[in-house]
Amino acid sequence: MTYQELIRGIFRRLRKLKFLYLVVGIIFAALLFIYAKSVAPVYSSRASVFPLTASNDNSAATTALSGLLGLSETPKSFSQDASINIVELALSRNTREAVAMERMADKGNKTVAEVLIQTYNDHKPFYKSSIKIPSDSVNLAAVGGNLLKNGFAARINKNGILEINFSSTDEKLVGPVSYLFIEKISEFYKELKIRKAKQDFDFTVGKIDSLEKVLKAYDRKAVQLSNTTLFVSPEKIQYQIPKENLVNDKDYVMRQRDAAANNREEALWRLQKVTPIIAILDKPDPPYDIKQPSGIIYGLAGLIIGMILAALFSISGMLYRYTVAEAKKAVLGEGSDATND
User: What share of the chain is helix, strand, coil (3-state, %, to 5)?
Assistant: First the structure.
């Protein structure tokens, strides 16, 4: 069989079996169309939250407040805010497991983890095994947190606003879980900042108390020296009583106490204003973004793939015979050339 004969044979076969190719393509198209329609749609919500990152105080307001509190000449003893990476907080296992253990009233008071496990089992691929609901809360939180990890994403956009995205095949689960994430992130963020300010305030109060005790000790020592020292003319004094050193030490401690008092006012002010206002700019409410394979695209792809596979299968015998014949010619041609040499 020559190359020209092979090409003519292939075209004859293709024209002869064109309706068979069409039938096979339709079958493939129907299978892929059914598969696309069987895939559960994935619903995605998007929420933006502001502000979650610390911003510097307005300089004019800070200067005015420092003047009122007498802090203008006092160095700041505390950091402005507790340092925290809000994206790491949002994606942390602690946050995910806290959300997973929350109960949902509209889901029969089941935990988010139980609903996620049930949703996964309902829409899982046939080749994956089902997940059993753990009996203890620790394992239940771990499984639920792991399932949330696959559908949750968080990032800080170019404007410094936290964006939260959550995806699920259960449309009724998307919004409530997104709100739970925002609630848990906000609670942890506020609690951390308040705890930091409370520790600063308690530290300054304790520092002032300790300095007051030192000052009282100096006063008692000064009174003791005054009561036990008799009047003697200066030229007859043999030993110098350390009153001057006592006064200097007391002045030094008093300066420390005054600085601590200023720091206490600063810490008190921060404790009063530290709780941030966290507002949801874009709520994670419907309509959600829906992702699902297109049945039309999958059907067209199945039609083309089915026809191509059927055509290749029908001409595979001809191609095989041609390949074998060409191989024999090549081998025989090499053998005859060697004999002639």
Answer: 65, 10, 25
